[in-house]
Specification:
By secondary structure, this protein is α/β, with parallel strands linked by helices. It has a single domain, classed as Severin. It is built from 4 helices and 6 strands, in the order E-H-E-E-H-E-E-H-E-H. It has a 6-stranded mixed beta sheet. It is globular.
């Protein structure tokens, strides 16, 4: 994929570190300026690990491309409790402008190069953006 020149801002890197260190449940990144995008910046960082998936849902927008790091908790079939840090690219096919969709696809590697996670997925349909889908996608990652 060609380089876009769009860089990951330090505030986003710092927020990811807080999520990775389990000081925060999730963080959301976005493009800085729709007219002249130069950075991927922090949109929101949760206040604690007590935040829920509903808290995450209240902070996202189907109108723009977003990158999400989320600490997901689930129980395996054998009763073991698991926790994973996941990376999700959220870019609604029906609502996000074409330019943003293209930039979203071409900037993922910039984020993945600086922010680690146990698994990654793309979600393009808002109906798939739920905790059950997250668990199904990432339980074997």
């Amino acid at each position: 994929m060609p380089k876009t020149g769009i860089k990951l801002a330090q505030d986003a890197i710092d927020a990811h570190q807080a999520v990775n260190d389990k000081k925060s449940k999730f963080c959301i990144f976005k493009f800085d300026n729709p007219e002249d995008i130069k950075f991927i910046v922090l949109q929101y960082k949760s206040e604690s690990m007590d935040d829920t998936f509903d808290d995450l849902l209240s902070k996202i927008s189907k109108e723009k491309a977003q990158y999400i790091f989320y600490n997901i908790n689930y129980t395996t079939k054998t009763g073991q409790i698991r926790e994973k840090l996941i990376f999700v690219t959220l870019c609604s096919d029906d609502h996000v402008p074409l330019k943003e969709k293209m930039l979203c696809a071409s900037t993922k590697d910039e984020i993945k190069g600086k922010c680690k996670a146990n698994g990654a997925a793309n979600i393009n349909d808002m109906d798939e953006f739920n905790e059950k889908t997250f668990i199904e996608v990432f339980k074997d990652a």
